[in-house]
Each structure stands twice: as structure tokens, then as C-alpha cells.
Amino acid sequence: MRPLRHILSAVAIALLPLAGYGAEADSLASGTDSSNPIKFGRVTPEVATILKANRAPEVQPVQTPVFNIATANKNFILTIGGQVNVITGFDIGNNLYKQSDAGISFVTSAIPVPATSGHKGDYYINPLNGFVDFQVVGLAGTDNEISGYIKLGTNGINSSVSMQRAYLTYRRFTAGMKLTLFQDAYACQPPTIDPEGPSGCVSTVAYEIGYTSKSYNGFRFAAALDMPSYYNSNGYYRGKDYPEFDDKQVLNDNAEELMPDIPMWVEYSSEGGNRVRLSGIVRRFSYRDLVAGKKRSVMGWGAMISGNLYPSSKFTLYYQAAYGKGIGAYLQDIAGKPISFVPDNENPGKLKASPMMGLNIGVSYNPTKKLQFNAMFSESRIWDVAEYCNALPEGQNYKYALYGAVNCFYNITPYLQTGIEYLWGRRKTWNIGGANDSRIQAQIAFSF
Predict the structure, then answer these.
(1) Has residue 1 been placed in a domain?
(2) Of 231 and 301, which is predicted with more confidence?
(3) What is the distance between the alpha carbons of residues 405 and 201, in angstroms, rounded to a whole number?
(4) 393-431 confidence digits (pLDDT tens)
(5) What pTM was computed for the model?
(6) What is the pLDDT at residue 295?
(7) Cβ atoms of 268 and 305 closer than 8 Å
């Protein structure tokens, strides 16, 4: 508890200047300070709209906090919310829960291949998927409306608390730590108990500065600069068997990056809510070719179509198809594996960008306001890395993964939700076969 107490104390100190900013906002409004007091109360629909407008989209919906501290004219708003989520379940066919980079997250790329005899099941109770968030809005309802958002939480594996989101919004600009603009959070998937979600989802948290336009007869556009993250050959040539070429070591050394990743999208939404988005990203990876003794770079790129369809008021369809080269840092299942940029066997000393894709489809059915059913299927796949992957440890050997989920959620009260879910996944490697895992789990989540 001591690290959490230190973090909350730091957050409180960081928010003090914003409280002063709220007082300054009061002075800009009509009336004296006494006529515009600060009050503690429930979040009204008006305040909820302001809060949501200043929050970046999230794949798993984050409930608007129930209580707020605000001035009478709403020029200053402060909220503290969060969730306590206890999940219990069984792994059947493998022991994915015991893998160091999985735990409560159903990470298909971490499914052990082959499944170890005598370790093909596991039972767990996990309360380590909670969070606390803070949001401050100043000059609400004016052209200079500004908001700051901070989210702290655990990762489902251990009790360590870490920063998960930290960004500000102002005049349609967003800057900070958030989901990348390349991701379509509304189309990626229906809600899941599983924090990870589909294997082929374009999803990552990035340090980003971005702009999203207003709607022009249903059309919107956005562009951003992301601080890049790369997962490459870690400096060593592992493709062919020879360690040298022309009496020189065949290595690829790290080099500083001078170019940000550039994601962008354009979207059209109809009056009925149906929408389609076309997204793209351009990125450059720099490295040192020690055979030629020079700095080189290789370009990566990605393209995606995504969106939602609403055949009726009770049904929502989700779809996403992404393809690119060198975009493993943005694909859910491939992120973290050193296979986005790999040695070019035909040109020793050089690297090439690996082709890869991610596909998702899903559906939600809401028969009542309290009850929701969801189903989804996903695939992630990479090509042209067989020789390189076969030289890697088993945990990094990756060809494709499949992911399927069905679940049901019931809102007992506005604060309390329960759910049950079945998950299935398969991971295939290049030379040691594949393996499956199934999971049945249930949750009880309290949001405030």
C-alpha cells in the first residue's frame, strides 16, 4: 500500500495548480466568488457530457465517475473514479495463466507450445485488474476548455501500481500517454472480461500529440505524432548460419531515431451511427549496418479499414482489417516480439520490414438496458520470418494466432456489474507446431 499512497499523494500535489486554475476560471465568469461556490455532488448529465468529450476513446468502456467537485457555473470540475474487478476462472488445455507475460490477460502469443504434459489446466482468483482515475476540466463550455486525465492501475499480473494514461486535451488537440490514434477503439472489439482482447486488434499505448477535427457533414479526420517503439533483431543476425560476411561480423547495431511514427485517419458516420474509417501509419526504423559500416533506415507502413454497423437499436457489429510491414508494435499479439524488422538474408548487414496483418469481427446484442451478449473472432499473422523465428526461443517463435470469445454481462446496479465469458485461442509456430487453450471465467466489478 505504501507505493500507492505515495502515488496518490503525488497526484494530489500535481492537481493543486489546477485547483488554482479553477479559481482563476471563477474570476473570469460573471459574479463574485461567493456567488460561484465550489460544491461536492453527483455528476449531472451536463457534466457527464463534458467529461466524455474530453476523454480519449477506450476499447473497454470506462464509466463516468459518479461524484464530482465543481463550481456552480461548471468552470472548474474535478472527478475521481475507478473500478475494483475480481475475476475467477479455469484454464483448460494449457496453463496460460501461469505464463509470466499473461496472467489474467488471455495473450494468445504466450500460449505454451507444445502444451506441457501434466500442466494443462489451472484455477485462479485475480483481483489485480483495478484502477483509479482523475479528471480535471477548466473553463468548461467555453472555447478555451481544457482537461487533464490520469489513470493509475494494476496489470492483472502483480500488485504493482503503474501509470496507464496521462494526457490533456485542448481545442481538439490531445497530448500525452494514451491509446494510439492508429487504433479504432470503437471498432476493435465488443467488451470482454479479458483485459487483453482479440489477438489481431490494432492496440497500443503511445506517447502522442494528435489532432481530431470536428464533423463536416459526417466526415472527420485526424493525424498525430507518436513516439516510436521498435521490436527488432536486438542487434544480432540470426537468419542464416554464417556469423561473418566478407570477414566482417554480420550485426545490426542500434541507432537513434529522428522521425516519429505518423498515424492518421479519415472517417464517415451516417445519422444512424453506421461508420467506416480508413487509417494509415508511416514509420521509419534506423539502424547501423556493420558490414557496410554505415547508418541505414527501413520504412514501415500500415493500412486499416474499420467501423461499426447498427442493423437495429439492439445490435452492434464491429469490424477491423489491418495490413502492413513493420507495424508489430501496434498489433496486439505481435507487440514485444523481435520480428517486425529482421535480417535480410539476401543482403547481409541490412534489415527488412516484415509483412503482417490483424483481423477482427464482433457483435453485441442488448436485449435490455441491463443485459448484454457479445461474440468475437480474431486472427493475427506474420509472414517471411520463418528462418529468423526458428533461431529464436520458443516463446518468440510466432506464425499466427486465433482468438475467439463469447460472454454475457449483467448490470445489477449502475455501480455493480457481473459477467461470464468463454475464451479460446490457438498459437502456431514455424517449426514446433501449435497449441490451444480455453478459459472459462466470471467477474464481479464495482465502478464508482
Answers:
(1) no
(2) 301
(3) 14
(4) 888 899 999 999 999 999 999 899 999 999 999 999 999
(5) 0.86
(6) 87
(7) no
Q: What is the pLDDT of residues 22-69, one digit of tens each?
A: 444 444 443 345 567 888 889 999 999 999 999 999 998 788 899 999
3-state secondary structure the chain: CHHHHHHHHHHHHHHHHHHHHHHHHHHHCCCCHHHCCEEEEECCHHHHHHHHHCCCCCCCCCCCCCEEEEECCCCEEEEEEEEEEEEEEEEECCCHHHCCCCCCCCCHHHCCCCCCCCCCEEEEEECCCCEEEEEEEECCCCCCCEEEEEEEECCCCCCCCEEEEEEEEECCEEEEEEECCCCCCCCCCCCCCCCCCCCCCECCEEEEEEEECCCECCEEEEEEEECCCCCECCCECCCCCCCEECCEECEEEECCCCCCEEEEEEEEECCCCCEEEEEEEEEEEEEEECCCCEEEEEEEEEEEEEEEEEEECCEEEEEEEEEEECCHHHECCCCCCCCCEEECCCCCCCEEECEEEEEEEEEEECCCCCEEEEEEEEEEEECCCHHHHCCCCHHHCCCEEEEEEEEEEEECCCCEEEEEEEEEEEEECCCCCEEEEEEEEEEEEEEC
Nearest 10 degrees: Cα torsion 132, 43, 68, 143: 100
As a residue count, the chain comes to 448
> Mean pLDDT for the chain?
87
Evaluate whether residue 317 is within a structural domain.
yes
Decide if 387 is inside a domain. Answer: yes
Residue 142 to residues 29, 45, 134, 213, 279, Cα–Cα distance (Å): 11, 17, 21, 17, 31
Sign of CA dihedral 379, 297, 226, 107: positive
Assign residue 392 a region (left: φ > 0; alpha: ψ between -120 and 50; beta: otherwise): beta
Asked whether residue 192 is assigned to any structural domain, the reply reads yes
What is the C-alpha separation between 160 and 131, in angstroms, rounded? 11
- Note down the domain range covering 335: 172-411
pLDDT of amino acid 117: 84
Report how many domains make up the chain.
1
Q: What CATH number does residue 294 fall under?
A: 2.40.160
**Per-residue confidence at 348, pLDDT binned at 50, 70, 90?**
confident
Q: What is the pLDDT of residue 312?
A: 93
| Cβ neighbours for 265, distance < 8 A, ≥ 6 positions apart | 181, 182, 184, 221, 222, 277, 278, 279, 280
Highest mean pLDDT among 93-97, 346-350, 371-375: 371-375
Identify the CA nearest to 256 among candidates 276, 294, 285: 285
